[in-house]
Write a structure and sequence with these properties.
The chain has 435 residues and is mainly beta. The chain contains two helices and 35 strands. A hairpin with a 6-residue loop joins strand 31 and strand 32.
């Protein structure tokens, strides 16, 4: 009977404790960003002296009130007495934290007397700094080959977004996501290689709701081999009185290593000279009018051709033209003749030169006048006197003795009449200058 009474008292005390204790706030599921901080809150009041509040990660106890019980500096615990609030702070949240549950429990004499609900940490994962990765391209492609640009990242929650762009414009076709490996995600962009794609660089951009910045990676320049695209630059019309020069240009990858020139119909080799991509017409007569000049450029992939027809100078116009060749193969650039430019601009050039000459003369004359006047003030060429009564001057050059080594002396005598209190007189002041 006594034993039953003790059991009833024990049950009553536990029931009383449970009724008195209750959580005013329990932990709830919380969002956190990887490598940043995560928080859980628990509010309970009026704990007894022999009661403690502990935080648990699953079955593992992390704290005793605010004392850390685990060897992990990522966890901090604090307590606000005014509100009875206990807080768990997780520094540098990891992906493993999202796989656990967190709860707070009241312990009395080593026994858990009250436990909160278990809450989860929803971790927004950030891809490793290694990503995105642009997979390497082939070392070379030919026109028509299939090019696949691949961009790789890891699978995260939330999912990342990948885009591919080239020359500052987004690629919106043939994009394909591949999750076949589960751990990684690939974005692939495929297209048929063209000559215009040679040298293109593709950029893969990665964004995520968990990241504040946009990460990118770049491919190496695309190396597309293609045969030469040929153009010819030269005068539109030939002048019978002088030699003419034509230059054959080739756009190709790899570069053209050989150029061929020919005439249709053929002409005598003495009438022209060639040096790689340069053609010089040494002798151009009227019989060349209507002849077709052909340039063939050759590289490792193939050859390209450009041709044009020779016209006479009497049909000349002072313009530069871009004409298409026969069969639409390539284009030819023609430049105007220098003599045509001089004939049309000669008057303007002469007028400009005349105006410049007049301006220089008009500016030079006042400078000369000012210069001469200044020199006269500083070095007078003759002497003046304020006495008007009498002035006399005499110059002579004394001759040196022959072979004596003496220098001839220049003698200058000046006589000036001056006024004195006794009357008028004359005085002479000799001056000697040597030549």
């Amino acid at each position: 009977m006594y034993t039953c009474s003790n059991l009833l008292v024990f049950i009553f005390l536990i029931f009383k404790t449970c009724v008195a204790l209750q959580f005013l706030l329990e932990p709830v599921d919380t969002d956190a960003v990887e490598n940043e901080e995560g928080f859980f809150f628990c509010i309970v009041r009026d704990l007894l002296d022999d009661q403690e509040l502990g935080w648990f990660q699953g079955p593992v106890r992390l704290s005793n009130n605010t004392q850390v019980l685990v060897d992990n500096n990522r966890y901090n615990f604090d307590y606000d007495e005014d509100f009875g609030q206990y807080r768990l702070v997780i520094n540098s949240v990891s992906r493993q934290d999202g796989m656990s549950t967190f709860s707070c429990r009241i312990i009395q004499n080593g026994v858990v007397v009250l436990q909160s609900r278990e809450a989860k940490l929803r971790v927004s994962e950030i891809p490793n700094r290694l990503y995105p990765i642009c997979l390497p391209l082939r070392s070379r492609y030919k026109v028509g080959d299939r090019v696949v640009v691949s961009c790789k990242s890891e699978v995260t929650t939330p999912a990342v977004s990948l885009t591919v762009s080239s020359a500052d414009s987004a690629v919106g076709q043939s994009l394909q996501y591949d999750y076949s490996e589960h751990k990684y995600v690939y974005l692939r962009y495929s297209f048929s290689a063209q000559a215009k794609n040679n040298g293109d660089v593709f950029t893969c951009s990665m964004t995520s709701p968990s990241m504040k910045e946009v990460r990118t990676c770049n491919t190496s320049p695309l190396n597309v081999y293609f045969k030469p695209n040929v153009t010819i630059q030269g005068p539109k019309q030939i002048d019978y009185e002088r030699e003419e020069i034509f230059i054959c240009y080739s756009n190709s990858n790899p570069q053209a290593f050989r150029y061929h020139w020919r005439f249709e119909p053929p002409i005598h080799p003495n009438r022209y000279k060639t040096l790689d991509n340069i053609l010089q017409l040494v002798e151009s007569n009227q019989d060349l009018i209507g002849s077709v000049v052909v340039c063939v450029a050759e590289n490792a992939i193939g050859n390209g051709t450009c041709e044009f027809m020779l016209n006479g100078a009497e049909e000349s116009t002072a313009e530069t033209h871009l004409l298409s060749t026969t069969s639409g193969r390539e284009s030819i650039y023609f430049t105007e003749q220098p003599q045509i430019w001089w004939d049309s601009n000669r008057n303007n050039v002469l007028i400009s030169l005349g105006a410049i000459t007049v301006f220089l003369i008009a500016a030079f004359i006042p400078l000369c006048i000012i210069k001469c006047y200044t020199m006269e003030r500083k070095n007078p060429s003759y002497y003046k006197t304020s006495m008007t009564d009498y002035t006399e001057s005499a110059n002579q050059l004394s001759q040196a003795l022959p072979l004596s080594g003496q220098v001839a002396t220049w003698n200058r005598s000046v006589g000036v009449q001056v006024r004195t209190t006794r009357g008028r007189g004359q005085s002479e002041s000799p001056a000697h200058r040597y030549v």
